[in-house]
Amino acid sequence: MKRFTTLLIAICLSIMAVQAQGKKSVFHTLPVHGKYFDTPEQFHRVDTARYRNMPKNVKNLYTNSAGMFVTFRSNTTELYAKWCVTDRKVGLNLTAIANKGLDVYIKNEKGKWQYGGAKGTVKTCEETLVLENLDSEEKEFLVYLPLYDETKSLEIGIHEGASFQPLANPFKKNIVIYGSSIVHGASASRPGMAYPAILSRRTGFNFINFGISGNARMEKEVVHMLADADPDMFILDCVPNSSPEQVTDRTSYIVTYLREKHPNTPIVMIPSVVRELSYFNQSWKTRNQLQNENWKAEYNKLITNGITGLYYLDIDNLLGDDHEATTDGTHPSDLGFMRMVEVIEPFVLDVLKKHGIQ
Amino acid sequence: MKRFTTLLIAICLSIMAVQAQGKKSVFHTLPVHGKYFDTPEQFHRVDTARYRNMPKNVKNLYTNSAGMFVTFRSNTTELYAKWCVTDRKVGLNLTAIANKGLDVYIKNEKGKWQYGGAKGTVKTCEETLVLENLDSEEKEFLVYLPLYDETKSLEIGIHEGASFQPLANPFKKNIVIYGSSIVHGASASRPGMAYPAILSRRTGFNFINFGISGNARMEKEVVHMLADADPDMFILDCVPNSSPEQVTDRTSYIVTYLREKHPNTPIVMIPSVVRELSYFNQSWKTRNQLQNENWKAEYNKLITNGITGLYYLDIDNLLGDDHEATTDGTHPSDLGFMRMVEVIEPFVLDVLKKHGIQ
């Protein structure tokens, strides 16, 4: 009878342990990676008070947490998250995961970051189980923050008693990508599929998202802000929202200013994707062609004038040739982003190699 | 002076014509294609009163307009649409374009359907300009309806005076695809990127979407409904939501019933995609493996028992090997759907050829 009672107690205890595992969690805050500047607001990409003369929309967009992530090691079998964003609506060309959600990667046995799980929300504050039924081996986690919203707070939860250790940024060097909504991440299906994030995971280099939706028109105040960074490479993907005239008027300034402040830093110029809608929309067709022609012409002038360390990714269409790679005619879907990465990655790696950056 | 006045009037008239072109539009309703059955409700895929014994969720989901489209020829330079759906919320893993929106293709000079433009909405009734600045050549248009909502009405608008002619379904034969949310279209970025729709455009065959999100568990009432169709091929992609036990219990019934009613119609069995979340979630890992093992075992039994015209797509992972092709760990993004199509298309075309279907 005593043995039976002991067995019963043991069974009850293990059932309670399992239940506790499912319910009791401990939350942690973590340092935020994937941004260049220290900012008074932890989840802002740029100190908008310091750069107060940038256009208002640009300042607002640099409060979005695009490109940011937290990373830690844990043997937790469940992963929870609490986070708050604003009450702005989800964009029509975005999922709630990409816009306001979290995206988790885990380092696999081959040492690669592998997708683990993602959660979207339409609430201003969400608390949810993100991963469950993990084995109890220690793993490295990387959690991307919302692309298109301002993150107000983030806590990561593990089961009580699990190990937990914040990790340093796993990506080396700094590559600043300045661009439009496409850099910002529209229309990735989730935060980890914005193209700078894919590039970081595939190359091990730290591609930093300076994308600003509907913007990136090379305004002087923005150029000066970018030049305050001292990265290992600048990538300029800022043609899509610049008019053909703005491309002609402003390209020389952004390139020569960055070169002046950073004599040895390679600068890569990426042409605009050909907007899929431009194949039938006659007005966009002309505009899109002119944007890229003017961009290339400015590059040629700069080279003729003797600028060094400037590279032009000379490709007609970053999105392939089946016309299927956008969500809305302008913004790449994950299919489009993967195609962009297949072209941009080897080009950028080659430039880094030329400059001895590894 | 008279000549000058005439010229002035001519200029004014042409300016007014351009303005009118931007403002005056004429709306048309059109026959709906991409569904198999005639239904009392035009935008339902199945007559849910006739098949009233199907599970309630299944009936609801067959009121969604997944796979449907309208098609017409016009020389309009602008395309408008008015459509109504329900007031249900957009899914967290979908865009408002895929869930409730329209997706337009235009036949290009090579005779291929090429993406033209898409519009999402969160309203129950939307009226919007979808395409503009088209040249005035006659073109063939194809407009996909919302994947994950019930369409209540649809009108297509062209500019006043433009030609307009409804077209017959451009896709030949009928291939019924019965499946889960993945067939239904989660998480395509827009309606035209659900995998049956991509297959139709690429092959010219009419792949008909019988996908039902969170369902497709081969219930007898659903099997009987499917057998009332008389297509040129059945594709069964119904493993993802069926438990391993349901796969074992129900596969023989669906296959033998379809074979009994349609002695010569090829039947293709597709294994479940490996859910990306199943690589780390130990419970899903076991379940996902068992689902596919049982599915394959049932196929082998059926073949042993002498069934003919049954084909099994024997592939471990339809989504590639970089683990990047889903939106939420279960549902393919456009990247995942395109990878599925690359595998499914040649397999299906080969089976059609074997059966002399062209």
- Tally of DSSP helical segments of chain A: 9
User: Helix share of residues of chain A?
Assistant: 25-40%
CATH superfamily heading of the largest domain in chain A: SGNH hydrolase
CATH class bucket of the largest domain in chain A: Alpha Beta
Verbal overview:
The structure is a homodimer of 358-residue chains. Chain A has 358 residues and is an alpha/beta fold. Chain A has two domains: 24-166, Galactose-binding domain-like (Jelly Rolls), CATH 2.60.120; 172-354, SGNH hydrolase (Rossmann fold). Helix content of chain A is 32%, strand content 22%. The first copy, chain A, has helices at 2-23, 56-61, 96-100, 181-184, 195-203, 220-227, 244-261, 282-304, 334-354, and strands spanning 25-28, 69-74, 79-84, 102-107, 113-119, 125-131, 139-144, 153-159, 164-166, 172-179, 205-211, 233-237, 267-269, 310-312. Chain A has a five-stranded antiparallel β-sheet with strand order 5-4-7-2-9. A five-stranded parallel β-sheet of chain A has the order 11-10-12-13-14, with helices on both faces. Chain A has a four-stranded antiparallel β-sheet with strand order 1-8-3-6, with helices on one face. In chain A, strand 12 (233-237), helix 7 (244-261) and strand 13 (267-269) form a beta-alpha-beta unit. In chain A, helix 7 (244-261) packs parallel to helix 8 (282-304). Chain A is globular. Chain A starts with a helix and ends with a helix. Chains A, B: This is Hydrolase. Chains A, B: Pfam families: GxDLY, Lipase_GDSL_3. Chains A, B: Residues 1-20 form the signal peptide. Chains A, B: Residues 172-347 form the SGNH hydrolase-type esterase domain. Chains A, B: It comes from Sphingobacterium paucimobilis HER1398.
